[in-house]
From TrEMBL:
A GO molecular function held by the record: ATP binding
Keywords carried by this UniProt record: Amino-acid biosynthesis, ATP-binding, Cytoplasm, Kinase, Nucleotide-binding, Threonine biosynthesis, Transferase
Catalyzed chemical reaction(s): L-homoserine + ATP = O-phospho-L-homoserine + ADP + H(+)
Binding, ATP: P101, V102, C103, S104, G105, L106, G107, S108, S109, A110, A111
Protein name per the record: Homoserine kinase
Pathway: Amino-acid biosynthesis; L-threonine biosynthesis; L-threonine from L-aspartate: step 4/5
Signal peptide (from-to): none
Gene coding for it: thrB
Any single GO BP term: threonine biosynthetic process
Cell location: Cytoplasm
Domain annotation GHMP kinase N-terminal: ranges: 69-160
Claim: Lipid metabolism is one of the keywords in the record: no
InterPro entries referenced in this protein's UniProt entry, alphabetically: GHMP_kinase_C_dom, GHMP_kinase_C_sf, GHMP_kinase_N_dom, Homoserine_kinase, Ribosomal_Su5_D2-typ_SF, Ribsml_uS5_D2-typ_fold_subgr
Length: 322
């Protein structure tokens, strides 16, 4: 048997309507099934560098050339980081189990990046440490999106509900989530690229919209700390992205209206889309929303919907034998 490490990184929802680029939450289906990517690494002296193979539900959405896979990039970036410490990277076989759809608004690239870096660091005896890992994750995610954003990486790695700080060397801080919120997460099966979703946003915003954004985000953070659930829910309104991005997601307005009729606290776009989320305090209402979305919002066989809690564990890694 060969010793190996298998890492898991969960799906995440960024922005959460009130926190454009500054809020993100890791998601865990209440069914207990995983919703995220796995990366397994084991030493392979017979290869030069790394050998990447892929599998999983959404493997058909990945580049056929493994050298164009973000996991391949993660190995090379990790190797470079080790070399800067005067250390040498192992020759490895790497298997990516791709269970999250790309360009879905569920932090798909972040999940692959986080799982890869966590697994790589585990097999190298945790050589980079916490600070080194999260920095490398941000750099790799930035390579995909064009700039470094931690609103998916931070919740995916740390778990929970994360507020992105980016000041005084602090990347993010955890906010206490509301335990009785059921998050209905639905991917309709269509692709919305981050680049397209960003290009549709205006270059400038009205002063009043900027003030409203800042006021609601500050109030949401305050409400989380003071455990004021009604106040927090009242702030989950987007004036920055959703008014422009809604047109990229067929059926979004109808889904939001149906959610409101069921008593949803909020319905919004997950990240840059096409996935959406709805928040409920009643479990039966959450499942009714899930079933409605499966019938009326999902466009093809790639789509899915889950009723979730916030995943407070984030990424995990275990030693396995293969």
């Amino acid at each position: 048997m060969t010793k190996a490490y298998r890492a898991y990184a969960p799906a995440s929802a960024a922005n959460l309507s009130v926190g454009f680029d500054l809020l993100g939450a890791a998601l865990r289906p209440i069914s207990g099934q995983p919703l995220g990517d796995f990366v397994t690494v084991n030493e392979n002296p017979g290869c030069n560098g790394c050998q990447v193979t892929t599998k999983g539900r959404f493997v058909h959405k990945l580049p056929t050339d493994p050298r164009k896979n973000i996991v391949f990039d993660a190995y090379n970036a990790y190797k470079k980081a080790l070399e800067s410490q005067g250390k040498k990277a192992l020759n490895l076989s790497i298997v990516l189990e791709k269970n999250l759809p790309v360009c879905s608004g569920l932090g798909s690239s972040a999940a692959s990046v986080v799982a890869a870096v966590v697994a790589l660091d585990a097999i190298h005896g945790n050589a980079l440490g916490e600070e080194g890992k999260i920095k490398l994750m941000g750099e790799l995610e930035g390579k995909i999106s064009g700039s470094i954003h931690y609103d998916n990486v931070a919740p995916c790695y740390y778990g929970g509900l994360q507020l992105i700080i980016g000041e005084h060397g602090v990347i993010s801080q955890s906010l206490e989530p509301f335990k009785d919120w059921y998050w209905v997460s639905c991917f309709p099966g269509i692709k919305v690229s981050t680049a397209a979703a960003r290009s549709i946003l205006p270059a400038q915003y009205r002063r009043q919209d900027v003030i409203t954004y800042g006021r609601r985000l500050a109030t949401f953070v305050h409400a989380c700390h003071t455990r004021n659930e009604k106040l927090a829910a009242a702030c989950l309104i987007d004036v920055i992205a959703e008014p422009y991005r809604a047109q990229l997601i067929p059926g979004f307005d109808l889904a939001r209206s149906y959610g409101a009729a069921l008593g949803a606290l909020a319905t919004g776009i997950s990240g840059s889309g096409s996935s959406i989320f709805s928040i409920f305090t009643d479990k039966d209402d959450a499942f009714e929303m899930k079933e409605w979305l499966e019938r009326n919002f999902i466009a093809n066989e790639d789509g899915f919907a889950h009723v979730c809690f916030i995943d407070e564990k984030g990424s995990t890694v275990e030693e396995v034998e293969i």
